[in-house]
Amino acid sequence: MDDDDLDELLDEVEKKFCSKASAASSGVKRNKDENKQEEWSAAKCEPHKSSVSEDIDALLEELLEDEYDSSPQSKGEQFSKREQAEKKLSSQTAGRKCCPVFIGGSSVTNGVGTATSKRSCDQLRCISCDFRVLMFDDSEWDASCDYLFLRNNVPDRQKLRAKLKKRKGLRAYACQCNWLSSSETTDLRDQPQLRWVCGKHLD
């Protein structure tokens, strides 16, 4: 083999193997650079993650404080004196019935009636037709109102208004079989045609 041929062969081998080695070394270098970049980005993300977790902790603390503020105990402390007084009054009258039973005009206070406090009963029920007695303040029944009209329209308050007239101070009462307009306090014992009783415990 000539020296020239040997040189050409060596040149080809050098080109082939040296180019592969340089490519491998550049690949290793590139991988190292990428690893460094990933490490740097990971390090950069770590404070971001910790700040997010701190934000979450702060939000949770706020929510817990809000939940404590809206607890039944703190709400109860915010009740006004008026609301407390109304609760006390309703609890005192919750188990009581009217005795005797009174009705009256719109100026007469509704509530539990007694011989001393003549309040108008607002829980009336008729024991003849077994309907709750409806009340309309500042109204009276028209003269054309009759049994058939009530039978067809009680307890629809909207339809009943067709036979009602505005009259200040009066209160119109009606069940499905009887009706009455009242302007002053009246003891139902004086109205035997009305079979109305205090229905507080009948519902």
Brief rundown of the structure:
The protein contains five helices and seven strands, in the order αααβββααββββ. The chain is α+β, with helices and mostly antiparallel strands.
Fold and architecture overview:
This protein has 203 residues and is of the alpha+beta class. A 3-stranded antiparallel sheet has the order 3-4-5, with no helix packed on it. A two-stranded antiparallel ribbon has the order 1-6. The longest helix has 67 residues. It starts with a helix and ends in a 5-residue tail after the last strand.
Head-to-tail CA distance between termini:
124 Å
Would you list the SSEs in sequence order as H and E?
HHHEEEHHEEEE
Low-confidence stretches: 85-93
Largest sheet: 3 strands, antiparallel
Helix content: 40-55%
Overall number of strands: 7
Kindly estimate the percentage of residues that lie in beta strands according to DSSP.
15-25%
The spatial strand order of the largest sheet comes to 3-4-5
Count up the helices.
Answer: 5
- The coarse silhouette is rod-shaped
> What is the residue-averaged pLDDT?
76
Rg, Cα atoms, Å: 46 Å
Structure class: alpha+beta
